């Protein structure tokens, strides 16, 4: 639903001196980060439901759980709501669902706090050699120098 709602029609004019003698139009998806942002918003307010099957007819149905969940009350989901049946497991710790985040690489200013689940992160300094100052030679050959630099690597603590 989020992807379908984000489809827009984009048009471009073609013609002499900017005239619009021919107009070409196409349907275009919203940028991926916008779709992701909308899905994340829906995820954060998703409704927990229970699935039941009528034994006589075999028809399935979903309904809100008997007790209030996370303050949503007995809200009946709309067709545009994101719903879920089971609570997500913790991905912070090692389990049958996840290898956890211990030792996982993160980016200091971007995501270490959230990825490391509040456990903090280690900093390791290392020297790396990478291709640099690359240039195309003739038509089909790329020539690069090797540059050595020091970098810091951040990984989640145990």
UniProtKB/TrEMBL annotation:
GO molecular function: cytokine activity; frizzled binding
Keyword annotations of the record: Developmental protein, Disulfide bond, Extracellular matrix, Glycoprotein, Lipoprotein, Secreted, Signal, Wnt signaling pathway
Any GO BP annotation: cell fate commitment
PROSITE patterns named in the record: WNT1
GO CC, alphabetical: extracellular space
Pfam family, one: wnt
Cell compartment(s), UniProt: Secreted, Extracellular space, Extracellular matrix
Major localisation: secreted
Keyword Disulfide bond appears in the UniProt entry: yes
Superkingdom of origin: Eukaryota
InterPro entries tied to this protein: Wnt (IPR005817), Wnt9a (IPR013303), Wnt_C (IPR043158), Wnt_CS (IPR018161)
Entry's family note: Belongs to the Wnt family.
PANTHER family recorded: PROTEIN WNT-9A, WNT RELATED
Function: Ligand for members of the frizzled family of seven transmembrane receptors.
Record-given protein name: Protein Wnt
Organism: Crotalus adamanteus
């Amino acid at each position: 639903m989020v992807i379908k709602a984000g489809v827009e029609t984009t048009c471009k004019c073609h013609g002499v001196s900017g005239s619009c003698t021919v107009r070409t139009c196409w349907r275009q998806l919203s940028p991926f980060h916008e779709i992701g942002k909308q899905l994340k918003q829906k995820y954060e307010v998703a409704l927990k439901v229970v699935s039941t099957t009528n034994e006589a007819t075999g028809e399935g149905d979903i309904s809100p759980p008997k007790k209030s969940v996370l303050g949503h009350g007995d809200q009946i989901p709309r067709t545009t709501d994101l719903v879920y049946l089971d609570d997500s497991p913790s991905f912070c710790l090692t389990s049958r669902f996840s290898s956890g985040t211990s030792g996982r690489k993160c980016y200091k200013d971007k995501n270490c706090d959230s990825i490391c689940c509040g456990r903090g992160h280690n900093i390791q300094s290392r020297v790396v050699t990478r291709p640099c100052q690359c240039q195309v030679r003739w038509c089909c050959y790329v020539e690069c120098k090797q540059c050595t630099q020091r970098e810091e690597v951040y990984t989640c603590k145990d």
